[in-house]
Amino acid sequence: MTILAPVDLLSRVEALRAQVRQDGIALFEQWHSAIAMRRRFLPAARNLADYLALRRLDLSHLQESLAAYGLSTLGRSEGRVMATLDALSTTLALIARQPAPAYPPARRLTDGRRALRHAQVKLFGEGHDAPNTHVMVTLPSEAATDKVLVGALVAAGMNCARINCAHDDAATWKRMARNVRRAAEKAGRDVRILMDIGGPKCRIETVHAADRVRLFRGNRIVLVDKLADALASDAVIITISFPQLIGNLAAGAEVWINDGHIGTRVVENSNGRVVLEVFSARSKGERLKIEKGVNFPGTELEIDPITEQDLADLDTVAVIADMVGFSFVQRPGEIVRLHDALARRRPGRKPLAMVLKIETALAVRNLPRLIVQAGAIGPVAVMIARGDLAVELGFARLSEIQEEIMWLCEAAHTPVVWATQVLETLVSDGQPTRAETTDAAMSQRAECVMLNKGPFLPEAVGFLSDVLHRMDRHQSKKSARFGPLNSWPAADLAI
C-alpha cells in the first residue's frame, strides 16, 4: 500500500470534492421541482444527492492514506457530506502548507444529526428517559380489551404502538388506539400510533392434500388458478390470494411459501397449473399453512399496492393514526396516490407522516426516489421489513442491504425502523437467544426498533429498552463512543 503525500492527497480530495458537488447538483436538480412544495426537506434531499454522488466512487485507497495521517476517512459523513469534504480539504491544505480556506462553521458538521433527531421526534415522539432508539410494538388483538396489557407495554418503554390493518377490524383498531392514548396520558408519556395498511400481500388461500402432508426437498406442489385446473394425480394443491400472478411465473422462477420457510422452483407452467419443486426446507420437513405469505423473488409483478380494502381502511387510519405504514410500496407515483387518498379523508389537515415499508428488490432500487417523493409531501421514515426483504433478496444479501439502507436514510435525514423477528424467541417463549440479543444490540443504530406480538411482549419491551440503553453508551449510528470501559478496573489488571 502506497500512502499519498499530503500535497497529492490534497489534490485528490479537492478533485473528489469538485466531482461530488457537480454530480450532486445535477441529481438534486432532477428532484428540486418536486420538493419545492416542502422547502424544509430541501437540505436533506441535497445531502442525499451528494451522498449518492460520493458513493458511486471507490474511495478505499484514498481512505487508507487519510487514515495514515489520522484524518477523517469519510466513513461517517452520511449526514453532512459537503461539510465533511470542506473540512477535510482545509485540514489537508494546512498539513501540506498550502493556502487554506476557512473551516466550515461547526454547525454545518452537526446539521444532519440534528435534522435526523428532529425527524425521529416528529414521528415517534419524545423519548424522555428512554434510550435514543425508540421502541415500536405491534399490538395483539387483546390490546382492544386488555387495558392492563397496554399499560404494561407503556410502562415497559413502548414509544410507538403499531396496528396492523391486515388483522382485526375498524372497531377493534379504535379500541386499541383509545387504550393506548389513555395509558400514555396516565403515564405522562408521548406514545404515537402507526397503522399499517395491509397492501397486496399474497398468501396461501387453500391447501388440498389427502393427508396433513409434510414437505421435503424434492417434493412437488401444484399451484393452480382454480381447482378445476388441477389433475387427478396432483397430490398437493394450493391456491393463492392473487391467482392472476400465476401467468407471470416462468420455468426456473423461484416461489417461496410459508413466509419464506419453503423454497420452490417452477418446473412447469401451463393452462393455469404451475408445478413447483421444493429445493429448500428444514430436514424435518415443513407443513403448508393457509394465510402464510407467498413471495416471488426475481419475478416482476404488476400489482396495485393500494387495494380496495386498503382504501376502506384509510377511513379509520385518517382519523386515529399519527402515521401510516405503506406496505409493498415500490414506485414514487404510489406515494402520491396514497397521499391523495388520505388528503381527501383529512381535509384542511397536515399530511399524515408516512413509513415506507421496504419489502421488495424494486423498492430497494427505487429507495432514493421513494424517500424524496414522500419527503416532498410530509414527514417520512423507512422500515426495513426484513421478513419479506430476506426472501426477496436472499438472506446473505439482507445482511448488507440493511446496512446500506441505514446509510442512505441517514444521508436523507430520514429515520429508520429496524423490523421483523427482533427478540422473537423472547416474545414467544420468554427467553432470548444469544443471536437475538446481538441483533437487538445492532438495532440501536436505527431510530426505532419494532417488536412483534407474543405472550411475553411486555418483558421483551423492557429487555429491549435495557439493551438499547446499554448500547447508547458505546455507539451513535456508525460512530463508537469512547466512554470509560468499566469491565476491567485497574485494580484487577496486575499479574
Descriptive account of the structure:
This protein is of the alpha/beta class and 495 residues long. It folds into three domains: 6-104, no CATH class; 117-200 and 304-479, TIM Barrel, CATH 3.20.20; 204-287, M1 Pyruvate Kinase, Domain 3, CATH 2.40.33. It is 43% helix and 17% strand. The strands form four sheets. It has an eight-stranded parallel β-barrel, surrounded by seven helices. Strands 4-7-6-10-9-8 form a six-stranded mixed sheet, with no helix packed on it. Strands 5-11 form a two-stranded antiparallel ribbon. The protein is globular, with a radius of gyration of 25 Å.
Characterize the main sheet.
Answer: 8 strands, parallel, barrel
Through-space gap between termini: 38 Å
**Low-confidence segments:** none
How would you state the average pLDDT, rounded? 94
CATH superfamily of the largest domain: Phosphoenolpyruvate-binding domains
Helix count, DSSP H or I runs of 4 or more residues = 16
SSE arrangement:
Blueprint: H1 6-35, H2 42-55, H3 60-68, H4 81-95, H5 106-124, E1 134-138, H6 147-156, E2 160-164, H7 170-187, E3 192-197, E4 204-209, E5 214-215, E6 220-224, E7 236-240, E8 254-257, E9 262-270, E10 273-280, E11 286-287, H8 308-320, E12 323-326, H9 332-345, E13 353-358, H10 361-365, H11 367-375, E14 380-385, H12 386-393, H13 395-411, E15 416-419, H14 424-429, H15 434-442, E16 448-451, H16 457-472, E17 475-476, E18 479-480
Parallel strand pairs: 1-2, 1-16, 2-3, 3-12, 6-7, 12-13, 13-14, 14-15, 15-16
Antiparallel strand pairs: 4-7, 5-11, 6-10, 8-9, 9-10, 17-18
Helix pairs in contact: 1-2, 1-4, 2-13, 6-7, 6-16, 9-11, 12-13
